[in-house]
């Protein structure tokens, strides 16, 4: 049961960081390489081409989740400090960012 709580916290933290990436993508101070990474991550998520095909329901989602759980924090950590702070501030103000923050606090 403890592992389920850890997974829930990970999803909540990554969800808030995904909202931060959305705001960082729209920020003109974000380096082009980071913007390309954000777009590539989003395209992979919605792409019909997967590392593991989605015909096996559970196995097909594993590669998508793994790439998101690794890619989102990787990109957030490479944002310049001022862009990261601005994106975090804007994510906290948005309804989706507040939703993830509340869910993260409830999981603790």
UniProtKB/TrEMBL annotation:
One family name in Pfam for this protein: DUF1232
Compartments in which it is found: Endomembrane system
Predominant location category: membrane
InterPro entries associated with the record: DUF1232
The DUF1232 domain, residue ranges: 35-69
Keywords, ordered alphabetically: Membrane, Transmembrane, Transmembrane helix
Membrane topology field: Multi-pass membrane protein
Protein name per Swiss-Prot or TrEMBL: DUF1232 domain-containing protein
């Amino acid at each position: 049961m403890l592992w389920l709580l850890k997974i829930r916290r990970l999803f909540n933290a990554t969800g808030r960081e995904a909202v931060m990436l959305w705001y960082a993508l729209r920020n003109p101070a974000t380096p082009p390489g980071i913007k390309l990474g954000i777009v590539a991550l989003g395209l992979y998520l919605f792409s019909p081409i997967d590392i593991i095909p989605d015909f096996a329901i559970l196995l097909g989602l594993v590669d998508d989740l793994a790439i998101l759980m690794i890619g989102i924090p990787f990109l957030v950590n490479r944002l310049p400090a001022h862009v990261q702070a601005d994106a975090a501030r804007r994510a906290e103000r948005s309804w989706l960012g507040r939703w993830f923050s509340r869910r993260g606090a409830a999981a603790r």
